[in-house]
Design a protein that fits this description.
Length: 217
């Protein structure tokens, strides 16, 4: 029992940041499995929220309607054999959140302060007891600024697009070249319009790591 208590007290939180397709989820899941930690995919949470608003017909510009809808938003992450399972209001949306429709608009919803405040609070609650590997954007700078280990992952646009393409459920709706262009445009948008209240990720004590040829999900 004493050893169990000691291990619990020695647990830490690990924050992994980086742009879409950098390999964050692959590495985070592997690390969590090796350490017996809880894996939290924050990107999946934003994708689930995006699907929620799209299904309700609420565009990012309708902040009043969005605030009301947030009261009924419930997102649950559960471990799965191959990847984390995502439940939106008791509905498994693991595949739906990887659709092209969600890909095209998730960055717009993720910049909304009300949604970020709601999800960041939930993510911080998940990490309160330590033993969490969390990946996403602004994790080491905003969500878990006190995480004991912080890593910033990146890769070329071509490599990231290939990974995203391999995990998409609707490959017939977009080409790899189009996906490369979308990722490039999203990178430019993030640089021009950073998320409210978030400092530059790679410059805030995060250890940089360039990932190449990782096995995709």
């Amino acid at each position: 029992m004493a050893n169990g208590v000691s291990l619990q007290h020695n647990k830490i939180n690990i924050a992994i940041d980086g742009p879409a397709g950098a390999g964050k989820s692959t590495i985070a899941r592997m690390v969590a499995n090796q350490l017996g930690y809880v894996y939290v995919d924050t990107g999946a949470m934003y994708r689930a929220a995006t699907l929620y608003f799209v299904d309700k017909g609420i565009p990012p510009e309708q902040s009043v309607d969005m605030l009301e809808a947030l009261n009924s938003l419930q997102i649950v992450l559960e471990p799965g054999e191959e990847r984390q399972q995502v439940f939106l209001n008791n509905r498994n949306v693991t595949d739906e959140i990887r659709s092209n429709a969600v890909n095209n608009i998730v960055s717009r919803y993720s910049q909304l302060e009300a949604l970020r405040t709601r999800l960041v609070a939930l993510q911080q609650q998940m990490a309160r007891r330590k033993g969490v590997v969390m990946d996403g954007r602004d994790i080491g700078t905003t969500v878990l600024p006190d995480a004991e280990v912080k890593i910033y992952m990146t890769a070329s646009v071509e490599e990231r697009a290939a990974r995203r393409y391999n995990e998409m459920s609707e490959k017939e709706l977009i080409t790899l070249e189009q996906l490369q262009q979308e990722i490039q445009q999203r990178d430019e948008l993030d640089q021009q319009s950073p998320r409210p209240g978030t400092p530059s990720g790679a410059s805030c004590g995060l250890v940089p790591y360039e990932s190449m040829k990782l096995v995709s999900r």
